[in-house]
Amino acid sequence: MQNIKSYVAEHKDRFLSELIELLKMPSISADSAYKKDVITTANSVLKSLKEAGCDTVELCETEGYPIIYGEKIIDKNLPTVLVYGHYDVQPPDPIDLWTSPPFEPVIKKTDIHPEGAIFARGACDDKGQMYMHVKAMEFMTRTNQLPCNVKFMIEGEEEVGSVNLAKFVKTNQEKLKNDVILISDTGMIAKDVPSITTGLRGLSYVEVEVTGPNRDLHSGLYGGAVANPINVLTKMIAQLQDENNHITIPGFYDNVEELSKAERAQMAKAPFSLDNYKKALDIDAVYGEAGYTTNERNSIRPTLDVNGIWGGYTGEGAKTVIASKAYAKISMRLVPNQDWENITELFKKHFESIAPEGVKVKVTPHHGGQGYVTPIDSVGYQAASKAYEATFGKTPIPQRSGGSIPIVALFEQELKSKTILMGFGLDSDAIHSPNEHFGVWNYLKGIETIPFFFKHFTELHK
Questions:
Q1: How large is the angle between the packed helices 4-23 and 440-460, nearest 10 degrees?
Q2: Rounded distance, CA 160 to CA 35, Å?
Q3: Is the dihedral of CA 7, 12, 18, 24 positive or negative?
Q4: How far apart, in Å, do the first and last CA atoms of the chain sit?
C-alpha cells in the first residue's frame, strides 16, 4: 500500500473533523425519542460511502432502523470483502458522570493517549471504528489501490440486538455474498501490543418483574405482613450465584466448553498487570468465579450480571412505601456451544421456580446471540496478521473477547463465510460507560492498517 502513511498524515484533520460531525448525532437506537437522529445518522453514513468511492449505495428499509449497503465491484473474479459496522450508539446515562457532554465531541489528552482522544458516545463503539473502514476505502479508491471487491453493511440496531439484521441477511444472501467478513467493533491488548479477537461470547438478555400486592402499600400498616417485591427480588437474584460465584441455574453449564491447560497457558502469555487493572478501575480486589484468572473470567467463562434494578420510591427525601412491583434487567454472557435461546428458557424456568408464595414473577426475554470462535489458520486471519505486522512491526496476539456481537454467528450460518475481528480500541476506552473515548492515534492507525488487510487477503486467497 504505497503512500498510506503520507495520505493519512495529509488528511488527518479532515478525518478527525468528519468523525466529530458523525459523533455529534445522538443515534440512540434504544430510545424512540431519538428516532429522527438515528435516521439522520444513517443518511450521513450513506453519503460518506458514496464519497469514499462506492459505486452503489442504498438505504435499505427494515421494520426498524435502515441498513446502509454499499459496494464497489472491480472484477467478479477477485475476492470480495464484506465490511460490517453499526452507526447506533448506547444511551449516554448517567449524564452527570461525563466530564464533557456525550454528543459534543472534544479531543483531550490522557495518560494512555498523550496525543489526544476523542471523547463522545460512540467514539469507539462503533462510529470511530466503523468510520476507519470508510476512510480506508477512500484511500484505496482515490489512489487506485483497491485490490479486490468490497461491500459495506452498516446497521442501526446493533445496540438493541440487531433485530432486523437477521431478516435482512437471510433475504439478501446473493447481495451479501462474500469471501470474508471484516469487523472493527473490538479492541486490542495495548497500543504497542496488537491483537486479533478470535472469540466472542454469546448473550442472553432478560427483564424480570416481581409483583406483590395490587397497589403500593403503607410500610407501617402492611410491613412484615405481605411480601415486599423489592426484598423478594433481591433475594431471588442473590440465589442465582453461589459462594464461589458459580451460576446456580440447573443445566446452565451443560454445554460450556472447557479449555485445556495448554490453551489456558497460551492465554496467560498475553501481557496483563493485575495491579494496573485494579488501579484503572479504582478497586482494591478483583471478583469472580473461583478457579479462574481475571482474563479467563471475562472471556472464556459465562457470566450473569444485573444491569439495572428498580422499584418503589427513589425520589428525594423519604416515602414509607412497599412497592407493588420490582424490576431488574439481567444479562448472561455465554461461551461457544451455549445456545442463547436454551439458556434464556433455563433462566425463565429456574427464576420462576425460586419465587416464594405471595408474589407473581414475569420473565421477558429481550435479545441474545450465539458465541463465536474463528480459527487462526484461516486465510482471513493470516491476512489480518500480516496487516498488523506491516503497520505495527510485530505479530499480533490472538485473543478471546468477553464482549458479544450476536450477528457474527448468524453471518457464518447464513453467508457461509468467516469473520475477522480487527479492533483498534482499548479496554480503557470506556465503551458503554460515561466518558467513552477513542484515541486519535488508534483511529488513524486503523485507517493505515485496514488497506493492508485487503492487499494480503487478495494475495493469499485462492
A1: 120
A2: 13
A3: positive
A4: 20
Question: What's the CA gap between 121 and 392, in Å, rounded?
Answer: 27
> With contact defined as beta carbons under 8 Å apart, do 421 and 183 qualify?
yes
Count how many residues are written for the chain: 462
Strands 437-439 and 202-211: unpaired
> How many angstroms separate the most distant Cα atoms in the chain?
79
Q: Phi/psi class of residue 217: alpha, beta or left (left: φ > 0; alpha: ψ in -120 to 50)?
A: beta
Burial of 434: CB neighbours in 10 Å, binned 0-12, 13-18, 19+:
middle
Angle between helices 4-23 and 127-142 (to 10 degrees): 140
Domains and CATH numbers, the chain: 4-200+371-460 (3.40.630.10), 202-256+302-369 (3.30.70.360)
Residue recorded with cell 468523525 = 19
Return d(Cα 233, Cα 254) in angstroms, integer.
26
What is the crossing angle of helices 127-142 and 35-52, to 10°? 20
pTM of the model: 0.82
What's the CA gap between 140 and 3, in Å, rounded? 11
Cβ atoms of residues 37 and 22 within 8 Å: no
Cα distance between residue 334 and residue 343, in whole Å = 9
**Nearest residue to 380 via CA among 398, 357, 355:** 398
Burial class (CB in 10 A: 0-12, 13-18, 19+), 288: middle
User: pLDDT (tens digit, 0 to 9) for every residue of the chain, 462 residues total?
Assistant: 789 999 999 999 999 999 999 999 999 999 999 999 999 999 999 999 999 999 999 999 999 999 999 999 999 999 999 999 999 999 999 999 999 999 999 999 999 999 999 999 999 999 999 999 999 999 999 999 999 999 999 999 999 989 899 999 999 999 999 999 999 999 999 999 999 999 899 999 999 999 999 999 999 999 999 999 999 999 999 999 999 999 999 999 999 988 888 878 878 888 889 999 999 899 999 999 999 999 999 999 999 999 999 999 999 999 999 999 999 999 999 998 899 999 999 999 999 999 999 999 999 999 888 888 888 889 999 999 999 999 999 999 988 888 888 788 889 999 999 999 999 999 999 999 999 999 999 999 999 999 999 999 999 997
Identify the CA nearest to 419 among candidates 198, 133, 181, 200: 181
Q: How far apart are CA 146 and CA 141, in angstroms?
A: 6
